Amino acid sequence: VYLALGNLLPERPTLLVSGINRGQNLGHDIHFSGTVAAAITGTFMRIPSIAISIAAYIHSVCHYETAAGMAVRIARATLKYGIPEGVLLNVNVPNLPLSEIKGIEITKQDKAAYDSKITEGVDPRGREYYWIGGIRQNCDDRGGTDLNAIWNDTVSITPLHLDFTDYGMIKELSGWKL
Questions:
Q1: I need a surface site. Which of 60, 74, 125, 159 has the fewest CB within 10 A?
Q2: SS3 letters for 54-75?
Q3: Which of 51-65, 85-99, 156-170 has the lowest mean pLDDT?
Q4: pLDDT tens sequence across 99-128
Q5: At a CB cut-off of 8 Å and minimum separation 6, what does 165 contact?
Q6: Could you tell me which of 68, 71, 33, 64 has the C-alpha nearest to residue 49?
């Protein structure tokens, strides 16, 4: 994003769309996602930004046409309605044909973390690698989360705010004897 804005683009874009990423960016995934990081960078640069991912496994057939159609639809709506400064949209699309998508849901971030399983392997060039992941633990099954939306075959749009500050904790920390 920095390279594009600083050197490659002849003019500043009116919208940044990062992706389509193969693989979901749900819940805590957003903290480790390059797709979301690119949208965060755009948002820092005051460009309305969207991260879009398709909830597909590595070796599965990927329905990019569905995600692309949703990306265009959401991009047009973003340009029409706008999003507040400091906010980006994290979009996850089920890996299904468009005819099987049951709708679009505005969601919150699921708080489930993965277990601490690490898979070790060797790539085709003989280099060792470690795959972080495993199974999500303590998923929020009350509904309204990005993960629940994907489980229910709906597109998830989660607005994310750049300000991670816990304002309530500021007051508490101020009372600590440091």
A1: 125
A2: EECCCCCCCCHHHHHHHHHHHH
A3: 51-65
A4: 999 999 999 999 876 666 788 999 999 999
A5: none
A6: 71
Query: Where in 23-175 does DSSP place strands (E)?
Result: 49-55, 87-94, 104-106, 113-114, 118-122, 128-132, 136-137, 155-161
Q: b or e along 108-117 (b: 16 or more beta carbons within 10 Å of the residue's beta carbon)?
A: bbbebeeeee
Please answer whether residues 161 and 86 qualify as being in contact, where contact means their C-beta atoms are separated by less than 8 angstroms.
Answer: yes
- Tokens at 106, concatenated: 């505005």
Say what the pTM is: 0.87
How far apart CA 76 and CA 81 sit, in angstroms, is 9
- Nearest Cα neighbor of 52 from 80, 69, 71 is 71
DSSP state of 28: G
User: Where does the pLDDT of residue 136 fall: very low under 50, low under 70, confident under 90, or very high at 90 and above?
Assistant: low
